[in-house]
């Protein structure tokens, strides 16, 4: 059992509303100069869930597994929603036909118009049918400030108590073993670099070059992955021997430098995390989503 | 002789105004320490192309010379200046005490924004808010025998100054440094537009800075980025080559460092580089 300060975590309600689908004002200009209509970001996506493929959705552009929610109110209120929510937190519909129904936060990404960050929430199919764009969703946020007591140099970014219990951490002497489906080299890690705070938005794993596509072909939405030589402590950047562990929160992209969104969960600078390859390390399984 | 379409290029006036220096409150640098950053925006009296990228006191993203910004649209990145001005284009003050005096456009740092060199006597006369007009000339420039090589922000003047050679059906460009693609950070993927955006060689992993001797980089240097494609945006492409100009200085913020304006890029194997001791636009254009 990995030791943490979880009993000291603050649990705070933050509120958002379901967004509209986000469409580029003109056509998407893909890496090869060919245009497309990019769809699948923002709004309610009925037929994508954790465990589904990241690739080949018809004109899909960073397809999201479920419902896109962004904070409401002034910029500070929106910032709280984007920063405090953690993957695994419970989300409850508080206004709308599905009032009282619960879902789970499965990702935090960028990419709405004006690069607005937002949060992706999974709901069961019968709840999805009742939801409307604009419905209000409240998240019981918990996880920010988590520390691994015996691994002080590992920085937790957004490991929720729910994830902590399901991720299958293993104590490996001085290092912490984390089950992941894939280790991704820094060469393929693109947009997100230079961004802060790390608590909101995501990394992008680039999906244009043939070598990257070959490496990533089996990656699924919801997978836990390790980004090698990538540090996400106080901003996102390259650091040799660092690791960032994250959740795959969207599908692939045709835009050069963009791709599969990875929501950061935890990071280390000098190899204090050891990725353990487990083929089904996916939050769909961890949270038993959609019959997984 | 390298043939191009320069006789078909449109020459168009674009305009910006000298901006105030940008300063925000303390911000966490890569290791969590707070930093108040200097050197972006405004008039820099003692920093010009050819000067080092590293080492300026509290400097971060330091920009040489004078920083201007297009004002005809809400976002400077949407203004004609951001899109059409090419490195090496002639700049002229069209208002203020130094009206009529000339300089040179030296690159674009997205978000800060557009950089111009003026000689020292001119800089002394400048006021924040003065208007600068650039004779933009270079957008649409193509190499007739190398249509696969995308040129960007490349003026005919810069193309002529680079010392490009042809060898066995390939172009060879002198550069001061080769940078591996994995070090490319902020700006990558940002938009699918190539012209208005620079992107950064990351300088916060000090082992990598040492390994590639990045501290020797100078503002205005010509560099090569391996496995980086800068056509329809910026990103990884195994085997691609991009040549660019360093437009701003180093950084202590994660993912940031000297900014690069790509000037030549291809994934089709017909662009090569040779590393030389000096390849800098300050020397090429005689900017002192």
How would you characterize this protein structure?
The complex is a heterodimer of chains A (292) and B (288). Chain A has helices at 75-84, 125-128, 161-166, 210-216, 283-286, and strands at residues 12-18, 28-29, 35-36, 67-71, 90-95, 102-112, 116-122, 136-141, 155-156, 170-172, 175-180, 182-184, 203-206, 224-231, 237-248, 259-268, 273-277. With 292 residues, chain A is mostly beta strands. Chain A has 2 domains: 10-141, Thrombin, subunit H (Beta Barrel), CATH 2.40.10; 155-285, tm1086 (SG structure) domain (tm1086 (SG structure) fold), CATH 2.102.30. Chain A is globular. The mean pLDDT of chain A is 96. With 288 residues, chain B is mainly β. Chain B has 2 domains: 9-136, Thrombin, subunit H (Beta Barrel); 150-285, tm1086 (SG structure) domain (tm1086 (SG structure) fold, 3-layer Sandwich), CATH 2.102.30.10. Chain B has helices at residues 80-84, 120-125, 156-161, 206-211, 281-285; strands at 12-18, 27-28, 34-35, 66-69, 90-93, 102-109, 113-118, 131-136, 150-151, 165-167, 170-175, 177-179, 199-200, 222-229, 235-246, 259-266, 271-275. Chain B has a 6-stranded antiparallel beta barrel with strand order 1-4-7-6-5-8. In chain B, a hairpin with a 5-residue loop joins strand 2 (27-28) and strand 3. The mean pLDDT of chain B is 97.
